């Protein structure tokens, strides 16, 4: 298993190899998207679903970029997968790193905490949205979509959210199933 | 008037001072937004309007960041404003630089060409959208919104678009009015 320090270096150098835009432009564009969905659906639960669906599509694309540019070799187990997501994946795409916590009793569950979450900059929720709208739900979709492409069916939940007063964004990942140990056949 | 080389350096160093996310994540998120608007409005002209409206709001926010972080001093005239947009503004936020062309006969008009436009990566338009959907229209709104905050009413059009076969994205900016030479009063 790669050490945290080495994964952090991998994340940093993969980030440098990417093209970038300003975090603020991204944040404001994402905010426009969420607002549009709220206007469209007038139902926060449905907005959560839509954000997850969009994230899923995005995750399926980002995993290719991740595999091409991260130079990460195959992950040994779920714990290592989560370290790679936190230290390399989040770093490459969102520019931030996460910290992973896991209990030895539950090897199929891990928590990733993002001390800084660019999605939330300048965001304040109206009271009626608090606890209902999962503003960061696109991340849930991205992780599920990306992991499914590497044969892991994973449940992801936002369990802590600064928009409702929590200290940091915390995601809970639960490995449900390893779909197939073989690489998928070439789709010619 | 600052030289192009010096503005380019200003743009590069302002870009380095920004927080970043990957261009690909931004592009895919923007793509989700455009798709959502197409589903909502089923009318490309209305999608263009909505993108411009969103861009306008974003531009009003980005100009503050621009003034705070670019360290650009007051622009002398419209030509210099356009150079600053192309070499500093686009660089800071989208990570790319534009080139400006202007005719001495029309000092209130300038064209900015973006050889690379991150919004368009992985995008292909269906035939019925070509020439109708202005996929990059958020840029029109951003420029109008940002410039209005610094007392310039400007018309912006996407006049060339790689999605319909043009070589590069080209924006035409027309200065309509300088709203007020004085800085706006403090809004206490």
TrEMBL record, chains A, B:
Keyword Endoplasmic reticulum: yes
Description of how the protein assembles with itself and partners: Homodimer.
Cell location: Endoplasmic reticulum; Golgi apparatus, cis-Golgi network
Any GO BP annotation: Golgi vesicle transport
Main localization (coarse): endoplasmic reticulum
Organism this protein belongs to: Thecamonas trahens ATCC 50062
Keyword annotations of the record: Endoplasmic reticulum, ER-Golgi transport, Golgi apparatus, Transport
CC per GO annotation: endoplasmic reticulum; Golgi apparatus; TRAPP complex
Protein name: Trafficking protein particle complex subunit
Entry's family note: Belongs to the TRAPP small subunits family. BET3 subfamily.
UniProt cross-references to SUPFAM superfamilies, sorted A to Z: Ligand-binding domain in the NO signalling and Golgi transport
Function: May play a role in vesicular transport from endoplasmic reticulum to Golgi.
């Amino acid at each position: 298993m790669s050490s945290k320090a080495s994964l952090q270096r991998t994340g940093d150098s993969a980030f440098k190899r990417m093209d970038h835009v300003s975090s603020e432009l991204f944040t404001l564009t994402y905010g426009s998207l969420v607002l549009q969905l709220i206007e469209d659906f007038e139902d926060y639960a449905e907005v959560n679903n839509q954000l997850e669906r969009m994230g899923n599509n995005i995750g399926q694309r980002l995993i290719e970029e991740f595999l091409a540019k991260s130079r990460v070799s195959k992950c040994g187990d779920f714990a290592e997968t989560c370290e790679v997501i936190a230290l390399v994946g989040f770093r490459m795409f969102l520019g931030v790193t996460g910290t992973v916590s896991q209990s030895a009793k539950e090897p199929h569950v891990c928590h990733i905490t993002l001390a800084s979450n660019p999605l939330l900059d300048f965001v304040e929720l109206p009271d009626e949205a608090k606890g209902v709208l999962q503003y960061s739900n696109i991340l849930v979709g991205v992780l599920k979509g990306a992991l499914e492409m590497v044969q892991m069916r994973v449940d992801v939940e936002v369990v802590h959210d600064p928009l409702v007063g929590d200290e940091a964004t915390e995601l809970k990942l639960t490995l449900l199933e390893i779909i197939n140990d073989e690489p998928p056949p070439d789709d010619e």
